[in-house]
Specification:
Elements: E1 5-11, H1 36-41, E2 45-48, H2 65-82, E3 86-95, H3 97-111, E4 117-123, H4 140-153, H5 163-174, H6 179-186, H7 191-194, H8 204-213, E5 224-229, H9 237-249, E6 257-262, H10 269-273, H11 275-283
Parallel strand pairs: 1-2, 1-3, 3-4, 4-5, 5-6
């Protein structure tokens, strides 16, 4: 009898903020041999969820990790109910935004578990979305995040953006622009060009989002490996290390938590450079 295929659920990184940016629309599923193709070619089954709002008409709440974690966990249950050849055991893995989602999955499993969870890998995770992307001042990711905070907590975008960058961001969103469109729209702006109020991350709305949607410092429902490039120019290594330390210090965490610094590697190259290590962690 053929043994069941070990199931991996993949949590993808930032692709954009509109329904057209769903990774199911990408021929290479966004990550190709950085992760998903490598896992599949090694013999694992991989399920990938489009987060709500990517691929559907609902608003996409970018970096709201626990919401995306629910999407991914439900994809596991859905895949197992359809394909009998899948194992009951499963592992989560994510990078960048998806690294935060993978972390949130482990936290979710501590309080609302579904059976078979073996652990999670969080690669280049920003556990504290506000202030953990570098450089904060000119990052299109921070601008994307402001839309989420506006939607969930009423942040007034016209009070923090200068008119031209806000119009550019709204144009990107309304026309289905994804990452590349965002990079192009913000590529020449300085922080002062973008924001009329650069302290908006200290606003009540932003603080509420950080409180409700950051990860770290909570019990986990299984072991976790954090992978972080030491030369990451997108996600500050100091943030992932702070989240690691907070989680290790959390009462009730009786699971293995490991932090691996991928020396000299930036945001995306760190996935290739650490491939041997994360494949071995899976096997172990």
């Amino acid at each position: 009898m053929t043994p069941p295929l070990t199931l991996w659920c993949w949590a993808h990184g930032t692709s954009g903020i509109d329904r057209q940016c769903a990774v199911s629309n990408f021929r290479n599923l966004q990550y190709d041999f950085r992760s998903v193709f490598t896992l599949a070619s090694t013999g694992y089954a991989v399920v990938i969820a489009d987060y709500v709002g990517l691929g559907s008409d609902q608003f996409f709440n970018y970096l709201a990790y626990k919401l995306h974690a629910t999407d991914v966990v439900y994809s596991v249950a859905a895949a197992q109910s359809v394909f009998s050849e899948l194992s009951k055991e499963w592992v989560s893995f994510g990078h960048s935004e998806g690294g935060g989602v993978a972390w949130a999955i482990a936290e979710r499993q501590a309080v609302s578990p579904i059976p078979g969870f073996l652990g999670t890998i969080a690669a280049a995770p920003p556990p504290f979305p506000i202030g953990n992307t570098a450089p904060v001042g000119t990052s299109v990711f921070t601008a994307f995040l402001s839309f989420t905070i506006s939607h969930l907590y009423g942040l007034n975008l016209t009070s923090i953006f200068n008119p031209v960058p806000l119009a550019a961001l709204q144009y990107v969103q309304s026309n289905g622009g994804c990452n590349d469109a965002g990079y192009s729209a913000f590529g020449t702006f300085t922080a002062d060009d973008i924001y009329s109020n650069t302290s908006w991350q200290l606003s009540e709305a932003a603080v509420s989002f950080a409180r409700d949607y950051s990860v770290s410092g909570r019990p986990l429902g299984g072991p976790m490996l954090i992978l972080q490039g030491s030369a990451d120019t997108v996600v500050a290594p100091e943030g992932s290390m702070a989240g690691f330390n907070a989680t290790c210090s959390s009462q009730g965490n009786n699971v293995s938590i490991e932090y691996m610094s991928v020396v000299g590697q930036d945001h995306n190259p760190s996935m290739y450079a650490s491939q041997r290590e994360w494949l071995q962690w899976i096997e172990d």
